[in-house]
Design goal:
Layout: E1 5-13, H1 18-33, H2 40-57, E2 65-72, E3 77-83, H3 103-110, E4 113-118, E5 124-130
Antiparallel strand pairs: 1-2, 2-3, 3-5, 4-5
Helix pairs in contact: 1-2, 2-3
Length: 132
Amino acid sequence: MSTLLTQDWSLGYPMTLRSVRLARLHTRRRLTMWNWTGDIDDAVLVTSELVANAARHGRLPGHELWLRLAVLEGGGLTVEVSDPVRAFPKVGTGADGQEGGRGLLVVAQLAAELDWFLRAEVGKTVRARFGC
């Protein structure tokens, strides 16, 4: 059984932390325009964490990161962030007193599913899914 998309949008961003703010604004605007019934604040926070991770750890000269939002039939949401680095992210515990490393923990707690996969052409995609 295939999952049908009711809305689909994507945009490329420069590999800089300034892209995080733009991605948050675009995500909030897009989900509001689509009248998505899920928790928009959670989706924006997840987008922010995934884009920040890509900008920090997925930077390669000549490449950009990509954000994709897709609302599925039934109201679920998929947030995907792609970068050119093929190394998979590590979920940190945040227990060692370090400032960073907890972003994927936040994503895993807010999203119904968190996974990642290698892209055929270059890099990887990190994907978070929300229920309706």
